[in-house]
Amino acid sequence: MSWIDTISYEESSGKLRKLYDRIKGPENNVDNIMMLHSLRPHSMEGHMAIYKYVLHHSSNTLPKWFLETLGVLVSAINECHYCVDHHFAGLKRLLGDDARADALKDAILSNRFEDAPLDDAQKVAMNYARKLTLAPASLTKLDVIELRQSGFVDGEILEINQVCSYFSYANRTVLGLGCSTEGDIIGLSPNNSDDPDDWSHT
Q1: N- or C-end of the chain: fewer Cβ atoms within 10 A?
Q2: pLDDT digits (tens, 9 = 90+) for 158-184
Q3: Which residue pairs, CB below 8 angstroms and at least 24 apart, start in 14-20?
Q4: Dihedral in degrees, nearest 10, Cα atoms 164, 36, 17, 88
Q5: What is the structure's pLDDT at 186?
Q6: Taking Cα atoms as reference points, which of 155, 157, 110 lies closest to residue 132?
Q7: Are the beta carbons of 187 and 89 closer than 8 angstroms?
Q8: Which residues touch 21 (CB under 8 Å, ≥6 apart)?
């Protein structure tokens, strides 16, 4: 499951068990990416907090399926198959249109997302995400101006930035510690966006 030791739900106790109880899914399943933090539960708290607030919060105004699409793009660029698999499953469920979801994934994986079933503004956001992931120091104020001119307000630009930044962090956590999907239930997420303290995965 990973290159470092981890503590399973069954072996957990104390603070770690309390955290696992907050984030677990069906049959006490804990996503492997979260189990990576089991030797330092405080880092799991930090990871879950930013994940929940950036991707699954009711104050976001961009559609969650599009935020997931950005996450799949960043993860594909970083070659993080774990995150691509998990978040594409979430994207597909949220979109409720398998053909469109598959077309999005195909466009991302073939690096032709200009052909993806997205509107022009969303394609600009995808370009921003690609640039931020591949060459962050090359970004300039003009990139943000382009997002504004395409119709995004600054709060939405912040959402785009934070989702892309979160996924680069998550990808490096997974890739740097050898996390696999072995034993995972693919596509679970903390779907209750109305309660920032509800971390349970469904």
Answers
A1: C
A2: 999 999 999 999 999 999 999 998 887
A3: 15/41, 16/41, 16/44, 19/44, 19/45, 19/48
A4: 40
A5: 78
A6: 157
A7: yes
A8: none
E strands along the chain, which residues?
none
What's the one-letter identity of residue 84?
Answer: V
User: Which listed CATH number (3.30.830.10, 1.10.246.10, 1.20.1290.10, 2.40.30.10) goes with 64-177?
Assistant: 1.20.1290.10
Q: Delimit the domains of the chain by residue range.
A: 64-177
Exposure string over 63-97, b if 16+ CB within 10 A, otherwise e: ebbbbbbbbbbbbbbbebebbbebbbbbbbbbbee
Question: Does residue 142 have a pLDDT over 90?
Answer: yes
Q: Please state, in angstroms and as integers, the Cα–Cα distance from residue 92 to each residue in 11, 64, 97, 173, following that order.
A: 33, 11, 7, 24
Structure tokens at 3: 């290159």
